[in-house]
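Consider this today:
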Amino acid sequence: MHIREVRLADAEKLSALIKQIDHDSKFMLWHSGERNLTPAVQLKMIESFLNKPNSTILVAEEGDELIGYLLANGGQAKKNRHSAYLVIGVAKAYQGKGIGALLFEKLNEWALNLGVRRLELTVVTTNKSAVALYEKEGFNIEGIKKDSLFIENQFYDEYYMAKIYE
């Protein structure tokens, strides 16, 4: 298993992985099929991330298959360029095997090399395994977004979490 920065050639595989994770997880923002994530759309997204110095997409690769990703979308204004908002997803068959921790390890190297000071994310409060991973990775809960998401006819709160490099 290998963690690396995304390449343009990964567009089709990354698109398929994100669609699969959207389908398998009730905690991702998008429902299965809710967004038009074609390989062409994914390619434009990859290009956009690669062209922003404070943004990246990391992928976990097993053989020739993508099994996880971590997007870091850096702030665009002068006042928030030091921060990046994160989204992480790991294929269901690979969850609980340390893939998330490996993605965060590579992200930490990237953030420290670029001088990114703040990483932030949101997570459903009942997603205990994700919250535990983020806390293990040095993220702290900064607040709660009440009734932030409506999933399967129920409102869910989200934690706003951040990690600050000092």
Summary: The chain has a mean pLDDT of 91. Strands lie at 2-5, 56-62, 65-74, 83-90, 118-124, 140-151, 154-164. Residues 90 and 97 are 10 Å apart (CA to CA). The first helix runs from residue 11 to 24.
